[in-house]
Amino acid sequence: MVSDLEPACFLCRAAAGATDIPWTDRPLWLDPRYGVLVPGLGGLSAGYVLLAPVDHHHNLASASLDTGGGADGFTDFVHALLTYLRAKMGSLTYWEHGGGYRPGVRSSACVEHAHLHIVPGTLDLPLPPGHRSYPSIGRALAALVGRSEVKDGYLLMGHSPGHCFVGRDVGISQYYRREWARLLGRADEWDYLLSEDPELTRKTIAAFFDRQI
After folding, report:
1. Is 39 left (phi over 0), alpha (psi -120 to 50) or beta?
2. Average pLDDT in the 94-106 region?
3. Which of 67, 69, 141, 159 is the most exposed place for a label (fewest CB within 10 A)?
4. CB 95 within 8 A of CB 51
């Protein structure tokens, strides 16, 4: 279900501390035991970042079970990053298109390496279909372990501060990015590969390190 490193995966390379990677993929925060934080390509606003486990898992629920140091270590890492980002940027919205492991099943995830999208502000995103509510993302990930969603895929969305919601994957690529773009009145700019704005990425990096640009 997991390999330590996929050489072609940009998140694997970032988590491994590779030096020959684009400036947009260089880690903002790296804990070699648990995970990495990188700027999010195709951000529609400054402050958009991705949090990923070190190893090449398909979803965060799987990573929370298998990441070295145990589940508590990984979920503590996620909690620490959300706490830090909230102190710097205020309220946050986060989501995961949790990929599955069943070949041929259409998924909302378009990158195989699990990652959590984090955006400043409280976005009014739709709740996942058939959602269940949890008081934190750590509780949500713990509840997913052993459930069929780890293999089938799922949607996860929440706010910090606030609850985390988990439900059925809708099978629409980049689903929550589409909803984010729609909320901003930019419905055609949901694809991260087509909407990349280097200036926004620079602002994200500068904000993280408290630099003026």
Report:
1. beta
2. 82
3. 69
4. no
